[in-house]
Amino acid sequence: MHRFANPARFQRLSAAILPWSAGATVILLIVGLYVSLFGSPPDYQQGDTVRIMYIHVPAAWMSLFVYVNMAIAAACGLVWKHPLADLFAKAAAPVGAGFTLICLVTGSLWGAPMWGTWWVWDARLTSVLILFFLYLGYMALVNAFDDPQRGMRAGNVLLLVGVVNVPIIKFSVEWWNTLHQPASVIRMGGPTIDPTMLVPLAVMALGFTTYFITVVLLRLRAEIVQRKIQTLRLTEAQG
Amino acid sequence: MTRKKRRLYMLGLALLGLGAAAALTLTAFEDNIVFFFSPTQLQTQQVGDRNFRLGGLVEQGSVTKLPDGVTTRFVVTDTVNSVPVTYRGQLPDLFREGQGVVAEGRLAGGVFQAREVLAKHDENYMPPEVADALKQAEHFKATTKTLKPSS
Question: What global pTM score does this model have?
Fold first, then answer.
């Protein structure tokens, strides 16, 4: 695993991946938006309002996916002191927070016409709001220390504590009565979404994932270059 | 034991403890996290005169508009027990017979006086044509079933 801890090797590898992930993002999102907005049928109950799903659901998945990845990175950072793991968590946090915000906002816009309310304090909505605060709290905590190393350590601990929230979000709709519907796709017994709607959803989810990969690689590269500049300046000042 | 291994075990133990604490807290708060009561839960739950939420399906053929034009009467059921509801106000788009609702209000003389009615949709998504086809297939199945004994 420490093979990729070498910054020079990481820069070479990420430079090779970036054009592909960026190209895939553009193609997947254009195709995905077209099939979600024009190439898929309206829902038998919700009509055209169902199209909010093609943004809302991938954003919700990504909010959890990014968090789990950050938590795994935090564990690697704490246990094996992997230098890139800390940087990854820091680079991914604003992207994950963004996905969570998109999920909350589109969910609210969807709830207003369908449920008849913008917001309720049911278990699913509340636990996702807590996830959003975990992201914000992590970002604030990492930047709250003069010594970046200590900030990262504190942030990693917070990330790992917040992991308990992940299964709560996923199973909140099964454990408790909620206004939010139960899972439609990742559930026992297979998806309950018609294939004509499942395909656009999958394309959008893939597009969101490649977008995440692209942005995190860019942010990591920038962070590594910035550190290099800092050390160069330090040696210059000392020498 | 190396320091890495010790850190790993510490981390595992801490997460285990945290998970157990979260599970205990959530089971202790179980009744408060529930967003609504079903008509069956109401049979055993002491609700008294306070506000609570009632959830279930709107019974087929139970929705009536009163002559004043703004009051709606319907029955919320979980197919075992049911509770009659009255509501004054505008209903959400998804409110229809056979669909889920969550109503907030209080019980008065066996009738639930709702202050707010929210629609709850299920996890099924399909185009209208598929829904029609399914309905027709079900209808077909039902008619063949009733025809069977005579044939």
Answer: 0.88
